[in-house]
Amino acid sequence: MKRNVQLTTLFAVIALIALSCASPKSKQTVENLKAAISGETDASAKYQAFSAKAAEDGYYNIAKMFAAASAAEAIHIKNHNDVLAEMDEEQFNPVAKTPEVNGMVANLQSAIEGETYEFTVMYPGFIDVAIAEDCIEALISFSMANDAEAEHARLYTEALEILNETGTDETVAAVWYVCPICGDLFNTIEDTDNCPICGENSTSFKVFD
Ligand code: FE2
Ligand code: FE2
Ligand code: FE2
């Protein structure tokens, strides 16, 4: 099994407690949603730039992986903004930082570092606060992004290993898929009927080929 399915349990717990976000008790969570949107906006722009650079260097499969990942981060932005809307807060659409683009190995390492920070530090911290503030909608949005980032990091690591071992990306997948609900990333959907994070049917996945 390539990953955990902790969200299944999480959703069961949520159904039982069914609490809702509301100001002012979820004040810190509003700030955390905005901080997450900033991080996701930078990540989406960075992966778009990495995709263009990969295509320029002839790494066409890695280019598709990063194009798919950029779209995945845009889904996280939308999900977090949807929570802000549910809380009657204004939409937050910051301008992305100009990405630092280097060679493909360095770009992959930077992408792995960014994702790892998000799923080991940023989102776990935001999830703890969302629980403390009874903000279930944010808890769901943060948890889905958290699990997707872990998968993004795993797939970039695989691509980096291939690039280091073979000097090419020829054995990196040529078709990539993104779950439109949670931003999970796939390099195959051969054995995937439903998204392991959110349960969405794989027939609705966005295809990057
Ligand atoms: Fe993300
Ligand atoms: Fe990600
Ligand atoms: Fe999903």
The CATH architecture assignment turns out to be: Up-down Bundle
Q: Could you give a short account of the major beta sheet?
A: 3 strands, antiparallel
Low-pLDDT sequence parts: none
Work out the oligomeric state of the chains in this entry: single chain
Reported by name, the CATH topology is: Ferritin
CATH class: Mainly Alpha
Mean pLDDT: 93
Number of domains: 1
- Output the helix-strand order: HHHHHEEE
> By helix and strand content, what is the structural category?
mainly alpha
Helical fraction equals: 55-70%
Question: How does this model look, in words?
Answer:
The chain has 209 residues and is mainly alpha-helical. It has one domain: Ferritin (Up-down Bundle), CATH 1.20.1260. 62% of the residues lie in helices and 4% in strands. It contains 5 helices and 3 strands. It has helices spanning 6-17, 27-56, 60-86, 104-132, 136-166; strands at 176-178, 185-186, 206-208. The chain has a 3-stranded antiparallel beta sheet. A hairpin with a 6-residue loop joins strand 1 (176-178) and strand 2. The longest helix has 31 residues, at 136-166. It is globular and about 55 Å long. The two termini are 25 Å apart. 44% of the residues are buried. The model has no long low-confidence stretch (mean pLDDT 93). The protein binds fe (ii) ion (3 copies).
